[in-house]
Specification:
Layout (H helix, E strand, L loop, with lengths): L1 E2 L2 E14 L5 E9 L5 E7 L10 E3 L1 H15 L1
Antiparallel strand pairs: 1-2, 2-3, 3-4, 4-5
Length: about 80
């Protein structure tokens, strides 16, 4: 799919963190951006996955570091 000049493909849906009254959802997915290697991606999506908010992408190393930090904080 394309969003403006950006090409993306949701390779795997990992989970939904929140659903809003607008039916948009905050999701964790593996997403390939512009044909690159898929990365962990956290952002809001419209129901059709054609529009999205700004988000954050993490490499596997960064995602593991974040998981470690969260485990320390929340157990």
């Amino acid at each position: 799919m394309a969003y403006g000049e950006i090409e993306y493909e949701v390779k795997e849906h990992l989970g939904t963190l929140e659903r809003y009254q607008t039916d948009w959802t905050k999701e964790v997915n593996f997403v390939s951006w512009n044909g690159g290697e898929a990365k962990v991606d956290i952002r809001d999506w419209d129901p059709a996955h054609k529009k999205m908010s700004r988000g954050i992408t993490l490499t596997e190393k960064e995602a593991k570091a974040l998981l470690s930090i969260l485990k320390k904080r929340f157990g």
